[in-house]
Amino acid sequence: RVxxxxxxxxxxxxxxxxxxxxxxxxxxCELLGGAVHTSLPGYATGxxxxxxxxxxxxxxxxxxxxGFAAVKLGVGSLTAEHGxxxxxxxxxxxxxxxxKLEFVRSLAGADFKVMLDGHMxxxxxxxxxxxxxxxxxxxxxxxxxxxxxxxxxxxxxxGYAELCRESSLPIAGGECLTAAYEWQVFIERDAxxxxxxxxxxxxxxxxxxxxxxxFAERDRxxxxxxxxxxxxxxxxxxxxxxxxxxxxxxxxxxxxPLHSEIMGDSFAMKDGVVLPPTTPGLxxxxxxxxxxxxxx
Length: 296
Fold this sequence. Notes:
This protein is an alpha/beta fold. The protein is 42% helix and 15% strand. It contains eleven helices and twelve strands. The chain has an eight-stranded parallel barrel with strand order 1-2-5-6-7-8-9-10, surrounded by four helices. A two-stranded antiparallel sheet has the order 3-4. α4 (90-108) packs parallel to α5, α7 runs parallel beside α8 and α9 (230-242) crosses α10 (257-263). The radius of gyration is 19 Å and the shape is globular. It starts with a helix and ends with a helix.
């Protein structure tokens, strides 16, 4: 959000890391200092919470059928009749999310990792304030959330810092932030328990590693953000494995051919965990055939 230039640099830098890795026959995570995890959990990034509850059950069961043992769901509900609905009343918002998580726990069990995405507390006419976000967080505490993502607007580091102090749930965020100096505004205030950098647009893999170190210095964790095609996913997988404070990887589930044909078998997930990449470079191959088929 601090400027298009950072995102443009991300693409150039990713290409250079890929070339260097292929030239040396080493995966990029090794060039970044080495894979420091033998595996990392991967979660299905689930988008909105489909309703009524039987539709939500179908979504979770689908992700489980793909091998995921963790999922992130959005606050509010998405129905064919009403579209996306997010409660603005603090009490109603808290009650709705607690009931949703109680249903998810009854369906998926205690060992299934569940995350909740606040979508920055936004709906068409209202944005959650700290009191609303804190009330929702308190209502969700009994259901062992892995993290509560961005229940406040991305421009509010002061509110996030207050929320982190008030909530026993890990508060995550930062998917919109680019360049280390923008991240520092949040990191220096301990605005996130878990940061969510995205190497594919934040300014490069080097910026990702710098931000991860800043979080580690304050004893905070990171969880990769990744919402794009195969090249973007692999950038974040390599960075995630190279950072000691990574706790989980975001995986766009049921991805299409712009993921699978570019990544080949370089992305490996088994029994709900992602394995360290071993293919030289980023593990992506953009063939002429693929470029012609997806000419856009």
